[in-house]
Amino acid sequence: MVRVDACGPGIDVGAASLPQGDFLAPLSDLGVIGASGEAAAAFLHGQLTNDVEHLVPGLARWAGYCSAKGRLLATMRYWRDEHTIWLTSARPLAQLLTKRLSMYVLRAKAKVSDHSDDCAVFGLCGEALALLAAQSLALRVPGPDEASSSGGAHLVGLPGLPQANGAARPRWLLVVAADQAGQTWQTLRAAATPVASEVWRRTEVLCAIPRIAPGSYEQFVPQMINFESVDGVNFRKGCYPGQEIVARSQYLGKLKRRMFLARGHGDVPEPGSDILTEAGGEPCGQVVLAASDGAGGFDVLFESQLAAIEAGGVRAGSIPLSLGDLPYPLKAID
């Protein structure tokens, strides 16, 4: 069953909570954008927060797309094959981003296209599942910051899902042509537990990887949601929209806002909704991304003033939040 929420169209199939073994999720809430042409890399290099010009086939990175005010319009996973640079973003934003990027192509020998209707995206968790996908589609199994492409299919490495014992369960994005989706799903579901799209979204929250959705569009400078700490910003590359503001946030003064990971019990808060101080009930931040745990609770990434966190508890609406530990260290702001 397709269910549309603030992050886009999700598919409720299979388990509603994280399984113990390998699992597979349909990711209809992720869109796919392609940039092709001999100047595609140079063009995107001048638009995104990370290095695109020097990205070679086989690697995958995070990047942001900012407004002139340095506020994120999107966060993206990107990689390239021999002909195209591929980017995934929130599905509800894909058409808007494609249109906006295309406005700036001008005379560059590049073309930006929305391939969301032409592709199917799946989330894979587990080494055996990734190996099966790779074997069935003539791919190799890439590492966390790598990608493998062949015959229109792409297997893209992601940060692993943190576990209580300190290990991480490996994750991948699998992108295939729409006409391959049915056969691919049937092949993979025989070896793994199918889960709902929101279960995969929860893995993003637990990995503390921010995803910009319509409700958080143009709200955050990258450092406010730890995007530099997941290597989504390259401070040595040339200009891009908002670059001066992003650089100023890095090099001038102490950053006063950050992203945090927390748990709550109740209705899942939507991206862009207010985070309030526990004591005075005053707005101190916004929800970035949240997902149900399948048992009446939720995990949430939220951005907040550091002073509010230091002063005491915070809540999402009326729901108290219990802070957790980020799965990565925050990089120092110079």
In CATH, the homologous superfamily of the largest domain goes by the name Probable tRNA modification gtpase trme, domain 1
Strand content: 35-45%
Strand order, sheet with most strands: 19-18-15-16-17-14-20
- CA-based gyration radius: 19 Å
Main CATH class of the largest domain: Alpha Beta
Total number of β-strand segments?
Answer: 20
What is the CATH architecture descriptor of the largest domain? 2-Layer Sandwich
Distance between the termini: 48 Å
Overall, the morphology is globular
Tell me the number of structural domains: 2
Helix content: 10-25%
Structural class by SSE content: alpha+beta
Unreliable stretches: none
Topology:
Elements: E1 2-5, E2 8-11, E3 23-26, E4 30-36, H1 40-45, E5 60-66, E6 72-80, E7 84-90, H2 91-103, E8 111-114, E9 119-125, H3 127-136, E10 147-150, E11 153-162, E12 168-177, H4 181-189, E13 193-194, H5 197-206, H6 243-251, E14 257-265, E15 274-277, E16 283-292, E17 297-305, H7 306-311, E18 314-316, E19 319-320, E20 322-323
Question: How would you characterize the overall build of this protein?
Answer:
With 334 residues, the chain is an alpha+beta fold. It folds into 2 domains: 203 residues, 2-Layer Sandwich (Gyrase A, domain 2); 109 residues, Beta Barrel (Elongation Factor Tu (Ef-tu), domain 3). Helices cover 19% and strands 35% of the residues. Strands 19-18-15-16-17-14-20 form a 7-stranded antiparallel beta sheet. The protein has a 6-stranded mixed beta sheet with strand order 10-11-12-9-3-13, with helices on both faces. Strands 5-6-7-4-8 form a 5-stranded antiparallel beta sheet. It is globular.
